[in-house]
Amino acid sequence: MVGPTRFMNLYACFELGIVDALRKEAGLTAAELGALVGAKPDAVEQLLYLLEKERFVARDAATGGYTLDRLAEVPEADLQRALTFMGMIKTGMLRQLYYLADSVTTGSVVGLKEFYGFDGTMFEAAAQVAEVRAAWGPLARNETASVYPWFFRSFDIPAGARVLDVLGGTGLGAVMTCQLKGSPGLRVTTFDRPALEAECLRTFEAHGLTDDCSFVGGQVLESLPEGYDVLLLKHFVDMYDKDDVLTILRNAHRALLPGGRIVVLAAVYPEDIGDAGDYQADFFPAYILGCVMGRGGLQTVSTYRSWLEECGFEVTEVSAKEPAEIPADAIINRVVISATRRS
Amino acid sequence: MVGPTRFMNLYACFELGIVDALRKEAGLTAAELGALVGAKPDAVEQLLYLLEKERFVARDAATGGYTLDRLAEVPEADLQRALTFMGMIKTGMLRQLYYLADSVTTGSVVGLKEFYGFDGTMFEAAAQVAEVRAAWGPLARNETASVYPWFFRSFDIPAGARVLDVLGGTGLGAVMTCQLKGSPGLRVTTFDRPALEAECLRTFEAHGLTDDCSFVGGQVLESLPEGYDVLLLKHFVDMYDKDDVLTILRNAHRALLPGGRIVVLAAVYPEDIGDAGDYQADFFPAYILGCVMGRGGLQTVSTYRSWLEECGFEVTEVSAKEPAEIPADAIINRVVISATRRS
């Protein structure tokens, strides 16, 4: 019951600049903080009770001055990453979650309709609504910076291969494939909605990769272009329900040459959903159903394995990040599943 | 970070009727539940992951059927009380909290303006906005049923006393004073905004108490009528900042006859704000500042004691509910503070 209040109480202390003020000067009182951030001292004191309780800040009973306690130990980069995530939760989720049940029954993100008059997914909204883009953009950039290098280290691409980056957006995955997996004769095709073609081609041009990369427009649930050695499915299988994932995997099977390989990047639930140390079940169902897609959701590795087998693939490797590489505040547990076209 | 999602994921399972369906029939699958509640099986499965994780429900891996686990042990009355509270959090808080920082800087409930075009406190909004009243009404009724009988057991009223129920609303406190503390000559006055007079007088009439009870209209921060033996301050001192509480207590001092008594019912923070078993700091600052008043907040007993002393009172008794009387899910810790006019 206290989840929403805890979240916003903490985030408001950052939004108001209370934490920043204490970082610059230790020992400020509620009256001094109030004057700095434009709030009544009483309200500052109230908001700081939770941070005192959690020992994020400490209050000197004699002077009434506050200092950073546990928050002082958090490295700036970690703090900024957490704040980016919290900003997304506030703007992209808090209000939208009010409509979670409606989103589930209609299979659409009702919150986007209510708050932005937008009919579609969060990804589509981010392309058109400034506030959504502002909340999601920094997160997407963090994601790219922290996940993509690891993803591309997790598998090999044979020299001179033909690669299809399925739902490759505006071409960043294709560019990174060339940069990190380059070989003579390598060709990468970005497949996505036709509306993204122009921006994607600009990306290729900006990186001097017009000879190596191309764009094919289409709908992933209808069909994929054929004749590829490697298909990349980065971060989107959890945005579809089972029947659609199976359709995509069957389309992928047809798109691959015999012996070709599919590489799936996905967040996954632990095999034991009761694993108390894994917070994905606490976050993703409400996030994906209520804020992003109105459908879909994470699966376990074993579920993806069985779906891949059902669609004519054999899983050859599953790799996860080294625990040491995962920040303590991370909610998401991603894996890379490689599978070969069996028949 | 997962607070808002955990809250709405759980509540949506009740809203959609998934829990009710499992209460009526154990062993239903996601497909059967989906058909019953009008949602895709995939979405039902996703929402139930969190409930599985928390062992609220269990899923039979062989049949895919769900049964209530820990939720089966919760008595119906406890569940209904928790759902009433959760309904209030959803309607009255979840979206409004988005504006917490704005509410703090403006000293007003910005969420009520944004969602209902309403300029005022949640109490005022409940009188005029059907949705707010629907969310708060049942909570207020639960409150009355569980708190008032205990409150009135916690102190004595001398026979034939003159009692002033400060901010007594539509007269319920006056009626209960007569019913539970009646004595020959007892007279109770309800003091509140003049706009409440008509409804208050109707309450007295409905209970046959027109001879015993009366109404005086006014503003609590300006002055109170004088010449009383006992003043009741039920549940509102935490809705004001310190300067206003001191004003109210000074007005109360003047309203009392020499030797008269003030009885304050209030939720209080623990003396050690770091007390991990007390959830009030997790809830009340964001609730009162962002959803109810835009100002105010709970204090500790020792703070109220010092404020009472500053205003010419001597605290004679502080009583709390017996722990056995407090439900395990209760966030609020209320006390009754009795104090005598010292000079």
UniProtKB/TrEMBL annotation, chains A, B:
Pfam families: Dimerisation (PF08100), Methyltransf_2 (PF00891). Residues 8-73 form the O-methyltransferase dimerisation domain. CDD domains: AdoMet_MTases (cd02440). The keyword Nucleus does not apply. Keywords: Methyltransferase, S-adenosyl-L-methionine, Transferase. GO terms for molecular function: O-methyltransferase activity; protein dimerization activity. It comes from Streptomyces paludis. PANTHER family: O-METHYLTRANSFERASE. Signal peptide: none annotated. InterPro entries: COMT-like, COMT_C, COMT_dimerisation, SAM-dependent_MTases_sf, WH-like_DNA-bd_sf, WH_DNA-bd_sf. This is Uncharacterized protein. Gene3D superfamilies: 1.20.58.1390, Vaccinia Virus protein VP39 (3.40.50.150), Winged helix-like DNA-binding domain superfamily/Winged helix DNA-binding domain (1.10.10.10). One of its GO terms (biological process) is methylation. The keyword Ion transport does not apply. Residues 98-313 form the O-methyltransferase C-terminal domain.
